Amino acid sequence: MRIHTLDLNFLNSKQVLSSYLVESDPPFLVETGPDSTFENLKAELRKFGYEIKDIKYVFITHIHLDHSGAAFRFANEGAKIYVHPNGKRHLVNPEKLIRSATMVYKERTYELWGDTLPIDEEKVIETSDGQIITIGDIQVRVLDSPGHAKHHNVYLIDDHLFTGDTGGVRIGNGPIMPAVPPPDIDIPIWLKTIEKMKSYNATYICPSHFGCFSDVEYHLETLRKNLIKYDEFIKKQIKFSDDYNTLFPIFKEYVDSFFTDKKVRDFYQFANPDEMNLAGLIRYAKVNKFDVE
Ligand SMILES: [Zn+2]
């Protein structure tokens, strides 16, 4: 078995968004990326000699469109799509997904994500926590992993932990940053998920943004610390204001402080936009009533 990182070249940028090819018999994928990068994914698969129809199994970490948007194209060619039980209905009927993407991205929605079409119910397979799914001679262990989203799975395949967004965002030599979009983020629950991910002692950690890293313990510990910093940041700021526009420049400056290289910072903005993260943190603070003394 070999694991290949496929660069989807999202927004014409390298190392922002990946899919992973597990080259085994049969080959399968973790993440599809959005439909807008489907042609890039096709080209990446061809480098290894595969066509879309060769991929019969796809594991989606969660249903956010940058991770799952092109799943329907594989299902149309006969693939089974594995997903968290809370995500299944949104793949079968993506109306709500499209509606919330349109609310956030407005006229840029199509350019960013392409089509998001429904998948036949029988092609979407609900997973359960701790389940082991055998594909050929490879075992895929499913870890329910709430924190970033309520519909998130992490997959342990051999010694690789595929963490979607629950393992944070890490690009090149950049920092290990939380991805905290609305509506589900829950930092205390996420911290528990980090302990769970640590407990498997994987050799590699592979966030979808971007690529595999071999310092798993350091990665997860840094993410844990940075999540706690985000938690402290919003708890402090929300007492002063819960207004997005007031908080935005403060948040932006705060995020800047994690970076030494301005160019690297720009790549993170594609993968993990400040706008989404601040909206997610404000919502998290309000739901938990941190704004009330
Ligand atoms: Zn996500």
Automatic annotation (TrEMBL):
The lineage of its organism: Bacteria, Pseudomonadati, Thermodesulfobiota, Thermodesulfobiia, Thermodesulfobiales. Residues 16-209 form the Metallo-beta-lactamase domain. InterPro entries: Metallo-B-lactamas, NDM-1-like, RibonucZ/Hydroxyglut_hydro, ST1585_MBL-fold. This is Glyoxylase, beta-lactamase superfamily II. It comes from Thermodesulfobium acidiphilum.
